[in-house]
Specification:
Blueprint lengths: L1 H12 L9 H36 L5 H11 L3 H8 L9 H22 L11 E7 L2 E2 L4 E9 L9 E5 L2 E2 L6 E3 L2 E7 L8 E10 L5 E10 L4 E5 L5 E2 L5 E5 L5 E6 L6 E2 L1 E2 L6 E4 L9 E14 L26 E6 L4 E5 L26 H27 L1
Parallel strand pairs: 2-9, 11-19
Antiparallel strand pairs: 1-3, 3-7, 4-5, 4-8, 6-7, 8-9, 10-12, 12-16, 13-14, 13-17, 15-16, 17-18, 17-19
Helix pairs in contact: 2-3, 2-5, 5-6
Length: about 400
């Protein structure tokens, strides 16, 4: 035991000697690392130019990004050959060095390629138009709203948009284009003797003269809303179904009875979507002769990620700090009313009105390409840190 203590004391008394620093080897290694970084960066730019050429040749292929990404990844294998041809000393070029070189290549390639394939350098993408005819069928006295969400990677201005109805160009002062949302209201005739169908063309041109064209039509008809059963003037009981036919796609079909303001919701026929069902059992109905029914329908539409804004142009927020969606609304009012003789029964007008589910907002937080790049960058950063820690442990 004393011998061990003596040996330990002798070791502690020995002076610490600084290991000899090989300056020449250190400088050689650092120069090699700088060269490998610079070569990886230049190779990334070179491959981005090559891939840009493929991007132009491929055109509007749905797998364009996937194919270009594959080319960029596969050609990374040539980086080793380039190092060898340029006579870089790869003797102690470890896993960490290779990972860093490939990461620099990939990020350089990706960033430069994104710059090349987007405006102002290049633009071959036509504007995107999400078109809504609101509604496609309308009664006399009602209006048609033509709605569209128009987007483009180089931006769209109001002056870039053209609307033609029945071949006649609409004055741009008569429609609106705000926050990529196009709105135009076509006023229908007050009196309609027969159906009127109108066709239209909506087009948008971007800064690269790429054009997108959407066509559609709408119809004014006195038969947009009709009653299927029973026949007007019939005597009806609670057990009898009252069925309405609605040509347009609507969010809610309802009606009022007599002169009260109670809106009674009808429900869709499970067998045929264009029919709506109801009966005299719901609150708002009364018994008697010549009970007048006035049908109507409400339409609601929300574009994806389109929100209400306050007077300052900021997105309005609800109490839960969520953005409030903006819903476009329009109505179809039947030009006809229908009279029925309602049998005096105890359960007439007693059942609460059926609730219609509120419209769903289209709020989508799908990651764009920028998000994918951010995720890749975070993964690369985590891997670099991981390998640095591993390298430190190995040195210990």
């Amino acid at each position: 035991m004393a011998k061990r203590r003596k040996e330990k004391d002798e070791e502690e008394e020995k002076p610490f000697k600084m290991p000899k620093f090989d300056e020449e080897a250190f400088l050689k290694k650092e120069k090699r690392n700088i060269k490998s970084t610079f070569i990886s960066f230049l190779f990334g730019i070179f491959m981005a130019l090559i891939c840009f050429g493929f991007w132009v040749l491929i055109g509007n292929n749905p797998f364009r990004w996937e194919l270009i990404l594959l080319v960029g990844l596969v050609n990374a294998i040539f980086l080793r050959q380039i190092f060898v041809r340029l006579k870089l000393d790869l003797t102690d070029f470890g896993r960490k060095n290779w990972f860093g070189s490939y990461a620099i290549y990939f990020i350089s390639w990706l960033v430069v390629l994104i710059v090349l394939v987007n405006p102002p350098i290049y633009d071959d993408q036509s504007p995107k138009i999400e078109l809504v005819v609101f509604p496609e069928y309308q009664e006399a006295g009602g209006d048609i709203m033509i709605l569209a969400k128009i987007t483009d990677n180089s931006g769209i201005r109001k002056s870039d948009i053209s609307l033609k109805i029945d071949g006649t160009t609409v004055n741009q002062n008569n429609f609106e284009f705000v926050d990529n949302i196009f709105t135009y209201t076509y006023e229908g005739p007050e009196i309609l003797e027969e159906d009127e169908t109108h066709s239209f063309e909506l087009s948008a041109v971007d800064s690269g003269d790429n054009t997108q064209l959407k066509q559609g039509s709408f119809t004014f008809s006195n038969d947009t809303i009709t009653i299927a059963t029973p026949d007007p003037g019939d005597r009806i009981r609670v057990a009898d179904d009252i069925k309405f036919n609605v040509k347009a796609d609507v969010w809610r079909f309802y009606y009022t009875v007599e002169d009260n303001d109670i809106k009674i919701n009808a429900t869709k026929d499970p067998t045929r979507e264009e029919f709506y069902l109801t009966s005299t059992e719901f609150i708002g109905w009364d018994t008697g002769d010549n009970i007048t029914v006035r049908p109507a329908a409400e339409l609601v539409y929300n574009f994806e990620n389109h929100f209400q804004k306050n007077d300052e142009g900021e997105v309005s927020i609800d109490k839960n700090q969520n953005p409030i969606p903006y819903f476009f609304k329009n109505y179809i009012n039947d030009t006809e009313s229908y009279d029925f003789d309602v049998v005096n029964e105890s359960n007439v007008g007693k059942t609460p009105i059926e609730e219609i589910e509120n419209p769903k907002a289209k709020v989508v937080a799908a990651p764009g390409f920028e998000t994918i790049v951010l995720i890749i960058s975070i993964v690369l950063a985590v891997l670099i840190i991981k390998y640095k820690k591993k390298d430190k442990r190995n040195k210990k």
